[in-house]
TrEMBL record:
This is Peroxiredoxin family protein. Residues 7-177 form the Thioredoxin domain. It comes from Flavobacterium frigidarium. It comes from the Bacteria. Pfam families: AhpC-TSA.
């Protein structure tokens, strides 16, 4: 795996804009005007660990909202594939298309899986990485979670290159203001 480590606690969260499934622009700074942002990176609708994690987030969404925070998920997949994620998870929060992996690069979570894993993802799991992404690089994001405070700083993160290790809702809630 490439040498990636994700942005650290205390660092400024890079501003970004991306589009949702309705072709609406999402701007991080606008969301921060309303409260803290829970930013989650996923690999795609083909990933059972991503889907399980998003279902858990959805089940606790009201608890996150009660803390004054919002949830935004960043996916490398185009809109038609994000719609599959929503169908599989019941997600009622914003999921953004990370065209050209711009957001994943900015947050230092982008990597290229080994060739054998790309074959497993594409052939066995049906990921269609070249077709579902904006390019044919077959890169993915580490499924990291960042809590961004209203002042734009990262106040908490979960970053683990083991895709099976995800943020826990209890940790997210504990670290929201």
């Amino acid at each position: 795996m490439n040498k990636i480590s994700g942005l650290k606690i205390g660092e400024m969260a890079p501003e970004f804009t991306a589009i949702d499934i309705y072709e609406k622009n999402y701007l991080l700074s606008n969301a921060l005007l309303k409260g803290e942002v829970v930013l989650i990176f996923i690999r795609g609708q083909w990933c059972p660990f991503c889907n399980k994690h998003l279902k858990e987030i959805q089940e606790s969404l009201l608890l996150i909202y009660k803390k004054g925070a919002s949830v935004v998920v960043v996916s490398p997949e185009k809109s038609e594939f994000i719609k599959k994620t929503i169908e599989k998870t019941g997600a009622e929060f914003t999921i953004l298309y990370d065209e050209d992996h711009t957001v994943a690069k900015a947050y230092d979570v982008l990597f290229k899986p080994k060739a054998v894993l790309r074959i497993v993802y594409n052939v066995i799991m049906g990921a269609q990485l070249k077709e579902s992404h904006s390019d044919d690089s077959e890169q993915l994001a580490v499924p990291a979670t960042f809590i961004i405070s209203k002042d734009g700083k990262i106040k908490w993160r979960q970053f683990n290159t083991n895709y099976m290790k995800r943020s826990q809702v209890s940790d997210i809630l504990q670290n929201l203001t």
